[in-house]
Amino acid sequence: LAAAGAAFFPWMVKNLVFFGNHLYPFLTGILPGAERIADPAGFFSASRAMDPSAILSSPAGFKTWVLQQSNVFLGDWPTGDWPGPILPLFAPWALCVPWKRPVDKALLGCAVLGYLAWAATSGLGRFLLPAYPALSLFLAHAVCHARWPSVVRACGLLAILYGCFFQFQVAVKQSWNMDFWGYLAGRVSREEFILRPHETYALPYYPAALFINRELPPDSRVLVLGESRTFYIERETVAASIFDHNPFWDAVRRSRTSGDLRRELSAMGVTHILVNAYQFLYRSSSAAVLPRDLA
Questions:
Q1: CA–CA dist 236, 163 (Å, integer)
Q2: Are 251 and 294 in contact (CB under 8 A)?
């Protein structure tokens, strides 16, 4: 639990400093930060979050919410988002455990709170990661201390072990499809690997990063449009996620002429602009990437 808190805490501090909301972008209707999201509908759609009013207003809405969680664990296997059936299969064993000690109750509370926080805000397995440590300890405690014969508990542990190995081979298979093993085995160089499209990496930006690193002066400041990836760019960059306000479009709104816009960009210290036209097409429906009132 301490490890999970240590991993989670810096994210909360960053959000509190930049947005005034330690859980940003969640709870933006209650805590500050709503004005920072240029495309809130797109963000919550991408996270597969359901509107709480839709969940609670009708039995059909609640059923849809439950089925969404069921599909995460038992349905299709989208890349990197399939936690497998272990949690729904063994969580009911917790009903057969005497949660008497304070430490056991604290573990139960952390696991339940972590799961509900995820279920209320997302339908993607990756966003359940912060709760995995508590959920793993919760499952271990439930299986090891359930009021079942020792043979049944042993079978439960073997099933979990099988599930872990199964998940490992899923990860290996996905890595194989992405050609990770080709790079790790030395069949391709780092540059060759990053230059080529792969599964989940359909639009490489690395050629542009190479050009910037090779041709632009060291003191350049690059404003990035239609793109949010800047990891390999070895120059100072100005960028935004596909859901947040890009400073370029904010400058356009403040400008009446092209000269005004040049002065706005100069005030930001921008010397060059990187435009990813393919991403403009791919994200054409995003209100943040390509604002319809300005483009």
A1: 45
A2: no
Cα 211 to Cα 36, 101, 194, 207, 224, distances in angstroms: 32, 61, 14, 6, 14
What gap in Å lies between CA 190 and CA 198, rounded to an integer? 13
This prediction has a pTM of 0.72
Q: Report how far Cα 35 is from the mean position of its chain's Cα atoms.
A: 21
Is the Cβ–Cβ distance between 263 and 238 less than 8 Å? no
DSSP 96: G
Of 112-126, 141-155, 173-187, give the lowest mean pLDDT range: 173-187
Which amino acid, 254? R
Give the SS3 label for residue 295: coil
**H or E element, residue 278:** helix 277-282
272-275 β-sheet, strand order = 236-238, 221-225, 272-275
The two tokens of residue 71 are 């599909």
Which range of 72-81, 170-179, 216-225 scores highest in mean pLDDT? It is: 216-225
What does the alpha-carbon distance between residue 212 and residue 274 come to, in Å, rounded to a whole number? 9
Residue type, 166: F
**pLDDT tens profile 95-105:** 999 898 999 99
**Residues contacting residue 36 through CB under 8 Å, at least 6 positions apart:** 19, 24, 25, 244, 245
CB 267 within 8 A of CB 284: no
Whether residue 74 contacts residue 87, with contact meaning beta carbons closer than 8 Å, is answered with: no
